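sanity check both lines:
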Amino acid sequence: MITPIHLAQQPEADELLGRSPLAALVGMLLDQQVPMEWAFSGPYTVAQRMGSDDLDAARIAAYDPDAFAEVLKEKPAVHRYPGSMAKRIQQLCQYLVDEYDGDASAVWRDVATGAELLARLKALPGFGEQKAQIFLALLGKQFGVQPAGWREAAGAYGEKGSYRSAADITGPETLAKVREYKQEMKRAAKAAKKT
């Protein structure tokens, strides 16, 4: 089943995110220090450059690290920091191979509670508390993964009707609302530093 996703704001990239749990995880991993659309279009770009229509955790984990870094560095680069992000993607994929037989959806498939899902997400390489909570909220709000207590485990990102993160983006209008919220948070942080 394909979930309609609008994070990359590109039909082909969003279609991949909606049908590939690994692509969604990699997009979330890439979502730092670059615009969200750039991050979430990354999985599609990587798949295309690897000659595939999807990502494969075992293949990426086993890929020569220098060659994989080149996949991300090719112009236009997949991320502002393609070398370090290539390492992080390979670490994530190796963890998925080791812990979940390479099946990204197994991270959330059989969880009983939101707290358990949050713990599993936080165990993923490259996923700290905030990234794990945002991804948990994305799973709950857009992918229908809603174990007991998922909203509480996602913290403020799980709140209904909020526009704080990628979890809340369903199109251009909600993207603008999330951007507005993030800009307001930056302004508030700057103002707090001055006082």
User: Anything to note?
Assistant: Residues 172-194 form the longest helix (23 residues). The chain has ten helices and no strands.
